[in-house]
């Protein structure tokens, strides 16, 4: 069985729906529960309210929790809110603590408080602890359902403990070892545990070189670390090395996806990640801040051009190459920007050294500038039969490409230096800044050499 | 211990280096091998050739294989090539098959053939099989080192088999079950296996709903699937459901990173992913194709403007707003493009329906166009005291933003329809296309209403 395609889900659903309409609970449950929770969630998301209410009454809170864990994050709030509160509380109770916390973080505080009151005490306490952590840190993505063993246990005892804890733990493939002060002192993989002899002590078989992250660590850095070290889970500790929770690889894959979407959107100048489920108004709201900011920068460019109105009146054809020069500057700046932002976020920049990267970009700008400059001189000489105009456009293009390439790399580095997320120096900003510089160079040159043009 | 920072690695290295210079093999090995292979690799990468040769002689091929698996992919080819061939062949032999194949794919064919001849027969056969698969498909990222059990084994027998295979298998957390025809019929997680009773038959405890991917499946789709279903491994099968290999989550994290870099670079108009380790010439080569293509599009825009030379000679100030209008069109088009490309790659678009998304973008374009149009009319009226010019720029801007928004969404959808990777419709292309359209609208309007301007 592969990932279900849309149409397969539809067919599946038609079968299940029949059972639903005939009020055959058992048949519905048999068919529906056989699916992977991801497919259950995709089918569930597409139902109308009345069908959803029937499903709530046919599934146990535990079964519903599996579905809700896989539902699209934009929709989950609405589903939890429409459920009978007692049922919703039970569903949240049955979910992984970290997923439940993600949902509660989206709800308003009164609702959260009332859910926490109805919930059983153990779950509500676990959730309350996690609710305090700042978004996008280790604390906010970790789970508290993990298996912990002590240094003095034997391998056999550890296996017995593991068998008991396995059903409720988020992962059992790494087992963390604590000392009598609850401090993290080691780790053993299930792989090593099953190879070890039953009577050995855990402290003799565990690895003491356990990699952990502090609870306030940024989620992007954790993702990078997990990818580099090929871990399936990472323990989270406080400043005294007490084990607080674990982060599993499935949560990290979501983080990687989220961060990639985020960088991508910023490069395109969208302030917040947009999805197809946004309405036109919410899309416009996310795009307008940049557009309006750029409008004002555009007015600045316009005022530079008006200062050269005399030159334009004399040689109107100068205007024809404004979009070409400004466009090329913008594009080459975006290219350099993208490379710089990536190399900052992967840590490559630090390794190479900023000066070296800027010098590399300078040489790149010289090469691209030279090539494009020569081509445009030839094109303008041939097409417009104006060699001097070609020279002016060509030299402007060379200077522009050089400066735009350097600034595309330099601006994000400076932002990083001052602890501003370099991805904020998005494409449109660099583009418009380079428009401005390029126009200045072009008309400056044109005015200086006006005598050759007229 | 956390991810080692650059300076920690340096300190670590100074200690290790001393052992190296004093020719204390044992001390060097003790210190170096205590590190995580990732840190070993990072330290190794920074050494000069002569030091690297000492390290080759101090480590066994198996230990060296762990280091090489973690080395940056851009550097690994050089390291393998500089080693004594017999040693390099042994290192490749000891690596995970999938990683060894990745390296061999980069080497020239003669070298590959000679390595395969020196290698032991079993490894070379496994590698040869994988070398045939196309890049970026399931076949190219899978490994053939996995644990397989039969339906008729008992749980106890399976555990015994697992203990024996564990050291060489890439993962043992999912164990795949085949029937007597070697067809994949089930899967059992190690978690479920350790809870099961020893004398039960595997066929009674395994899950028959095993999700697999065909060997030719695209790696991006596999990553999406693994993320959705939260799997740690996925089996790869041929068209008759024979189990060929498995893909593990650590390889998928690399794929996700690669695909994200790829989309990001394309949005910025870089034909191939660039890294800071590229030379200026190789960077320029990756950027020039787009720049030169855009240069020709820019010439087209120039030729449109020259057709309106008469209008420009009469009202030179018209030229001042060219960069503003073209820039806004380019930026808004890139925003719409980024949203469309993301929603195509996540499959969201298919769910929503194209018509609906285009209609949503149309409304978004109307809203942003209206807001920006009104602002520019006010600005030009106030700053330049020219109400009619403001009206013409404002209306052009409205029309331009509307068209640019729609085209930003429409172009990638069309490309997807004709099976072209929509990410190729990168920012610079949409930007320059929209430059062209916007200039046409602006001068068209200006010429039509010239009488109000002069």
TrEMBL record, chains A, B:
One of its GO terms (molecular function) is magnesium ion transmembrane transporter activity. It is found in: Cell membrane; Membrane. Keywords: CBS domain, Cell membrane, Magnesium, Membrane, Metal-binding, Transmembrane, Transmembrane helix, Transport. SUPFAM superfamilies: CBS-domain pair, MgtE membrane domain-like, MgtE N-terminal domain-like. It comes from the Bacteria. One of its GO terms (cellular component) is plasma membrane. Acts as a magnesium transporter. Belongs to the SLC41A transporter family. PANTHER family: MAGNESIUM TRANSPORTER MGTE. Homodimer. This is Magnesium transporter MgtE. The gene is mgtE.
């Amino acid at each position: 069985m592969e990932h279900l395609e849309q149409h397969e889900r539809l067919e599946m659903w038609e079968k299940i729906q029949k059972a639903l309409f005939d009020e055959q609970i058992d048949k519905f449950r048999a068919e529906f529960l056989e699916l992977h929770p991801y497919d259950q969630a995709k089918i569930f998301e597409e139902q109308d309210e009345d069908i959803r209410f029937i499903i709530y009454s046919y599934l146990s809170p535990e079964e519903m929790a599996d579905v809700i864990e896989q539902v699209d994050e934009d929709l989950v709030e609405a589903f939890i809110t429409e459920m009978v509160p007692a049922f919703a509380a039970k569903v949240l109770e049955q979910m992984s603590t970290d997923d439940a916390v993600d949902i509660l973080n989206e709800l308003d505080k009164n609702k959260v408080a009332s859910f926490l009151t109805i919930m059983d005490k153990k779950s509500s306490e676990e959730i309350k602890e996690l609710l305090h952590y700042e978004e996008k840190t280790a604390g906010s993505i970790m789970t508290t359902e993990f298996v912990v063993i002590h240094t003095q246990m034997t391998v056999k005892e550890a296996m017995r403990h593991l068998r008991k804890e396995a059903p409720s733990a988020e992962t059992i493939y790494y087992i963390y070892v604590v000392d009598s002060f609850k401090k993290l002192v080691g780790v053993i993989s299930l792989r090593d545990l099953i190879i070890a002899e039953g009577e050995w002590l855990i402290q003799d078989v565990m690895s003491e070189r356990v990699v952990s992250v502090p609870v306030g660590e940024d989620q992007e850095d954790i993702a990078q670390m997990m990818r580099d070290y090929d871990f399936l889970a990472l323990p989270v500790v406080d400043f005294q090395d007490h084990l607080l929770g674990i982060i599993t690889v499935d949560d990290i894959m979501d983080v990687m996806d989220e961060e990639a979407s985020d960088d991508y959107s910023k490069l395109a100048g969208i302030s917040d990640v947009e999805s197809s489920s946004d309405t036109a108004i919410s899309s416009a709201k996310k795009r307008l801040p940049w557009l309006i900011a750029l409008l004002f920068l555009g007015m600045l460019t316009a005022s530079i051009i008006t200062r050269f109105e005399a030159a334009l009146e004399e040689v109107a054809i100068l205007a024809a190459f404004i979009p070409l020069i400004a466009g090329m500057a913008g594009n080459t700046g975006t290219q350099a920007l993208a490379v710089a932002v990536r190399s900052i976020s992967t840590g490559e920049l630090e390794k190479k050294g900023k000066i070296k990267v800027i010098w590399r970009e300078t040489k790149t700008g010289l090469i691209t500038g030279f090539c494009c400059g020569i081509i445009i001189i030839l094109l303008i000489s041939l097409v417009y039969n104006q060699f001097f105009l070609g020279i002016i456009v060509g030299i402007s293009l060379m200077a522009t490409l050089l400066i735009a390439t350097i600034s595309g790399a330099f601006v994000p580095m400076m932002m990083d230096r001052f602890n501003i997320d370099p991805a904020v120096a998005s494409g449109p900003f660099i583009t418009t800044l380079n428009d401005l510089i390029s126009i200045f160079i072009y008309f400056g040159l044109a005015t200086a050499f006006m005598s050759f043009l007229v």
